[in-house]
Amino acid sequence: MSLPARSFLHLLRRFRRNRRGSAAVEFALVAPLFFALLFAIIEVAMVFFAGQVLETVTQDSARMIMTGQAQNAAYTQAQFKQYVCGKVNALFDCTNGIYVDVRSYPNNGFSSVNIAPPIDATRAFNPDMKWCPGKEGDVVVVRLFYQWPLFVTNLGFNISNLANGKRLLTASAAFKNEPSGASGTTCS
Q1: pTM here?
Q2: What angle do CA 67, 70, 75 make, to 5 degrees?
Q3: Is 25 helix (H, G, I), strand (E, B) or coil?
Q4: How many domains in the chain?
């Protein structure tokens, strides 16, 4: 065997035994999956956290209707939305993003409550929002909606429930209005 061929074989054996770069190669193979999973976990956590914040805001704001304060002050839907926006932190774009739906039902129990989902067959959000806080003794359902933007969806992890790639967050509060002397407001 000639000298260059022998040195080449020696070089190949040395290269095969050397393990210094194997960790970098293995990490390069695993890193995309690791980061995709990491970002998916973060996104699910953010959606869950935003949903919980929306639930808390709904419960706190619905109390104003349940106790008759909104009816006695003759709140409109826009004024109630402004009240809700005062409770929302920097997590939501309140001016364009939050939808408020308040519906009342006669005082014959919760069995008459019929709330249709605001998502149609094409997975589009139909914001048919009503404002009817009711009078004392009425059953009232307060719902807040927010279209949460998703980012990891484009990487193959899809938790969107809307055709535009967003997740519709919904928070609800159902209750019976307390006796407060509120005669109710005009429904719209």
Answers
A1: 0.79
A2: 170
A3: helix
A4: 1
Residue 6: strand, helix, or coil: helix
* Residue 11 placed within a domain: no
Query: Could you tell me if residue 120 is inside a domain?
Result: yes
pLDDT for the residue numbered 1? 53
- DSSP single-letter state for residue 86: H
Q: What domain range includes position 132?
A: 25-176
Determine which helix (DSSP H) or strand (DSSP E) holds 173, and give its type and residue range: strand 167-176
The vertex-127 CA angle with 124 and 130, nearest 5°, equals 155
CA dihedral 63, 66, 67, 72 (to 10 degrees): 110
Stretch 118-143: mean pLDDT, rounded? 90
Assign 168 to helix, strand or coil: strand
